[in-house]
Input
Amino acid sequence: MASYTANPHENPNATLIRRVETIDDSILSIAGGAGSNRGTGGMITKIHAAQIACSKGIDMAIILRGKPRSALRYDGGQRGRHPFYRREHQMIQLGKRAKVASRGLKIASTATKNNALLAIADALCDNMEMVISANQKDIAAARSSGISEAMIDRLTLTESRIRLWRTRCARW
Output
């Protein structure tokens, strides 16, 4: 797949980007302008195509020119063999695993469920900086997609909210 940290024809230190979860300004700046004298699109056009495809729920691969076998290795995203994929794919897989896990939760005791909640709360506290940082990105995306401020408030994680939840879990 052909996304690099820089133009590999101009920069020998350019490295392959195997997976892009979010097309942001850094990816757009790497793409630059037209790629060759044979075409006017270059990588930027491919990145814009990836944005359109992913916004419609379609995974996308960019296949190396002159390496048609790389298309044969494309696996539909099952093992991450293409650089652009929609986040929803990951969420669907997570949902499927949660459904399987729910079967075990149905028969678990209240104490077991409470211990699981406490372990989750502890993990959130132990990884608070990372969790809040990821949440801030999600909140920014929610705002840009027009979600109401009331819903954004419910989705927003802060250190005090996480610690309060941890305290409440410990009381159960």
Remarks:
- The first helix runs from residue 25 to 31.
- The chain is about 60% helix and 0% strand.
- Residues 94 and 100 are 10 Å apart (CA to CA).
